[in-house]
Amino acid sequence: RSVMEKILQRKSSRMRNAQRAWQESPEGVKMVKFRTSLPAYKEKDRLLASIARNQVLVISGETGCGKTTQLPQYVLESEIETGRGAFCNIICTQPRRISAMAVSERVSMERGENLGETVGYKVRLEGMKGKNTHLLFCTSGILLRRLLGDRNLNGVTHVFVDEIHERGMNEDFLLIVLKDLLPRRRDLRLILMSATLNAELFSNFFGGAPTIHIPGFTYPVRAHFLEDILEITGYKLTSFNQIDDYGQDKLWKTQRQLLPRKRKNQITALVEDTLKKSTFESYSSKARDSLANWTPDCIGFNLIEAVLCHICRKERPGAALVFMTGWDDINCLRDQLKAHPLLGDPNRVLLLTCHGSMATSEQKLIFEKPPPNVRKIVLATNMAEASITINDIVFVVDCGKAKETTYDALNNTPCLLPSWISKASARQRKGRAGRVQPGECYHLYPRCVYDAFADYQLPELLRTPLNSLCLQIKSLQIGTIGEFLSAALQPPEALAVQNAVEFLKMIGALDEGENLTNLGRYLSMLPVDPKLGKMLIMGAVFRCLDPVLTVVSGLSVRDPFLLPQDKKDLAGTAKSRFSAKDYSDHMALVRAYEGWKDAEREGSGYDYCWRNFLSAQTLQAIHSLRKQFNFILKDVGLLDADSNTSNSLSHNQSLVRAIICSGLFPGIASVVHREKSMSFKTMDDGQVLLYANSVNAKYQTIPYPWLVFGEKVKVNTVFIRDSTGVSDSILLLFGGNLLKGEMAGHLKMLNGYIDFFMDPSLAECYWNLKEELDKLVQK
Ligand code: ADP
Ligand code: MG
C-alpha cells in the first residue's frame, strides 16, 4: 500500500509542478487574469472552506458567473497545489452531452492542456479521458450508469451535479441515489449547482445543507414584447393566415389539422378579432387563455426574419441568439434565412445553429468571434438557455416555447409538443443578452401571455412516463420502486408509478413479483426507451436486424415523411407508394429508407427525397442513429462481431411485422369493420382515430384484426400515428403477457430471451410455432 502511496505522491508533485509552470507562463498569466475577473473567483476561498467542512453544499449564481468551468477547477487546483492531485477524482455532471463536451474542452484550455489529460469527458458512445484524468465532465446519465455497476462510487472524491434547477429526470434521480450513498461514503463531497434562486428546495432535501450564492453582474437587458416588436419592425399581423407562418412546424400543423373545423373557425375569428384591436391588454381573460393555447407557434418565421433584419439594419454591433423549439424548426428557419438577401449574405451575416446533435466542429464556431463587420446569428434550442454561454450575445429573440414532454397519468399518454416556457426560463433567456454590454430581448408573444406563464417549469419526473426510470431503479437494486421514488424531491403520483410497473410487467421486463427478468436486465443496459429496446433485442434474436434498426431509429428520431399543408394529397400518395399493400407505416418507412440509401449511392438522394416528400435531414439522422444502435447492441453483447447472421431472416416480412408487434405492444388497437366503414379501439381509450398520413387511413378495409402502433397523441380525441396490421397469432405469440395457461409457458420462454442467445435455433422453433398457430386459427 505504501508503494502505491509513494507512486501517487510522486505523481502529485509532478502535477503541481506542471500546474505552476502553466500559471507562470505568459499564456497562463493571461488566462489567470481572465479567470480572476469572473464573479465566482471572489467566493473561491469561502467555497473551498465550505466544501472542506460540509458533505453537501448548494451553490447558486447567475449563468456565466463561472460555476461550471471554475468551481470543479478550483477544487482540482487546490488539491494539486496541496500535493494531493493524484488522490482526487472529481466528477461533474451535465444534463446534455454537448455541454459536457464543450465545458471539458474549455477547462482543459484554461489549464493549458489538451483534452483528455487532467480534464476529460464521457458521454454516451463517446469520451476523452486518460489515466491522468482527475476531473471528468459527464452526462448525468453516465454517472447513473456508473452507479449501476459501482454503488459506492469507489475512488471518487467529489461529485458536482450541475444545472439542478432544470429538474431533469436524471438529475432528480441522481439526487435520490446520492443522498442514499452519502452515509456510506462519509468522505465523499457533493456539490449541487443551480442557476436560479430556488436553492432552499435542494438544501432542505439534504437536511439543511449550507448554501452559497455567487452574486453576478449582468448588464441591463431591455425586454420587448410582441406589441412593441410590431411597432419597432413595422411588421403587420393582419390575419390568422399571416401569423400562421410558423405553421412550418409540423407538430403545430398536426395540432391544427386535428382541430374540429368549428373550433378552428372560432379560433381564427378570435385571433383575427383580437389582432384588429391595437392593444393586447384589452383581451378578456377567456380570450387570453384561448390565445395562449392556440397561437403559440404561429408567431411566425417571417416575424423572426423581420426582427433579425431590424437588428442587422438598425441596431448596434453584437451577436444575436434566437431561441427555437427544436431541430426541425431551426433547420427550416435557417433555410428561409439563407434565401434572404441580407441575412443570407455570408459577407454580412454568420448564421450558425446550436442544438444537441450537432457536430463538434460546428459547436466551436458558436463561441468564436465573427470576422469584422459580420454579425453572428445563432439559432438555438433551449440548451443555450443555461448550460452554454456565448459571451458576445447582445440580442436575444425568444419564441417563448420549448419542446417538452407532458404526461397525463390518467390517460397514460405522453405527448411531445412545444409548450410555453416558464417565467424563470423567459428571464433566463433574456439574461443571455447582457453578458458584455447592455442588451435587447425580443419576446415574440404579447405581455399578457408572459403574465400567464408558470413561475417554474414542472420537474421532468412529474411530466414523463416512468418506464425507463423504473427499469433503472430495479437494476440498481435499491428497494421497491414505490419506496425509492417517494424519496424524490417532488415524488411522482402513485398512479404514474403503477402504470410504469404494469407496463414493465406487460412487456416481460419484470416478473409478477416485480423482479427483473433477463429481458429486463438487457433492457436496462440499452439507453433507449424499453419498448424500442425490446424491439432491438427481438430483431437481433430473430435475425432481422436491418429493418428493425430502421424502424427503431425512425421512431426515436421522427417521421421522415413530410406533410406540407398545401400538398397533403400528393404527399399521401407518395407515401402509399412505399406501402405495397402491406398495411404498415413502419414497413413504408423501411422501404423509403432503403430507397434513399440506394439513391444516395447513385448521388440522387436529394432528388429522391424531393419526389417522395421525404426529409433528407431526418433520413440522415435515422441513418446515423442506426449505426449507434448497432454499436450499442454489440457493446452489451447482443450481437456477434460478425453481423451477417443478424440479417439472415430480414427478407421475411411477416417476421419483421411480428418483431414490430413485440416492441410496440401494448400499443394495440382492434380493427372493427362495419358495413363500408372501419373504426379502431385501443385497450383503454375506447375509440381512436388514425392519423391522416397513415397508409392505413387510405383503406376501406384492412385484412388484419389488429393494428400495433408506436405512439398515440391526445388532442381532442386520441389519434394513433404510425401503425402496422398484425394477425391474431402474431399478437398471441409476440404481444407480451396476453395469454394464460399453456401458451403462457411459451411466452415465458420467449421472454427469457437469454435462452435464445444460448441457442439461436430456439428462435426458429418459435417462429415455426407461429406457422402452426396460423393454420389453427384459419381452421
Ligand atoms: P456558469 O456555469 O456559471 O453559467 P461558466 O462556468 O459556464 O458559467 O462560464 C464562465 C465564463 O467562462 C463565461 O461567462 C465565459 O466568459 C467563459 N467561457 C465559458 N465557456 C467558454 C468558451 N467555450 N469559450 C470562451 N469563453 C467561455
Ligand atoms: Mg453552467
From TrEMBL:
Its EC number is 3.6.4.13. Residues 303-477 form the Helicase C-terminal domain. One of its GO terms (molecular function) is hydrolase activity. It is an enzyme of class 3 (hydrolase). It comes from the Eukaryota. The keyword Cytoplasm does not apply. Keywords: ATP-binding, Helicase, Hydrolase, Nucleotide-binding, RNA-binding. One of its GO terms (cellular component) is nucleus. The keyword Plastid does not apply. Residues 48-215 form the Helicase ATP-binding domain. It catalyses: ATP + H2O = ADP + phosphate + H(+). Belongs to the DExH box helicase family. This is RNA helicase. It comes from Asparagus officinalis (Garden asparagus). The chain holds residues 211 to 989 of 1151 of the full protein.
